[in-house]
Design a protein that fits this description.
2 domains, four-stranded antiparallel β-sheet, 4 helices, 4 strands
Length: 198
Amino acid sequence: MKKSKVSNLKYIRGSRFIKMYSACLKRNPEYSRGFTLIELLVVIAIIGILASVVLASLNSARTKGNDASIKSNLANTRSQAAMYYETNNGNYSVPGQAVSLPKGLNTNCSAVNTVFDPAAKNSINPMIKEAQETYGGSSSTAALCSIGAATTTAGSQTWVAYVPLKDTTNGTGFCVDSTGVSKQTSLVSPGVLGGLCP
């Protein structure tokens, strides 16, 4: 008796499952209904909005990363320039040699016989060039450089370098100079007098 009750119970449970399963397989509107066009359009619109938010934040992060790289490269120029200064008897240009860099900021950041000379030992030119490339400008448009003494054979005691930034919220560029100043500042135009950050 007990065995038959158990087998009957298994059969009942099995038959209920089979009935439910077969009902699902039938072409019943309750089970075969798909998505409407409106539902699909709403989902696509939501996905599009989320994608635009993510892309905007990625673009902002990329800009901040580029600016951090520019600031880091320019901040490192100070220690490199200090080594150049010691190597050249306390000058940022070679004493006794003509300097081809006019006084005032200009786009010649590779002037011969100066701390910007690419061929000189301990030159800061490679770091400025890397900052320019990070900004995306060419060597003739992105960076501005200057030294204190210009077109003379006297040694220079000051230098300054400026590279624009992509994020212009707190100023349009980053400036470093020989006095230790390292700051974000407003746009500087070529020809501005002086060998220090404005």
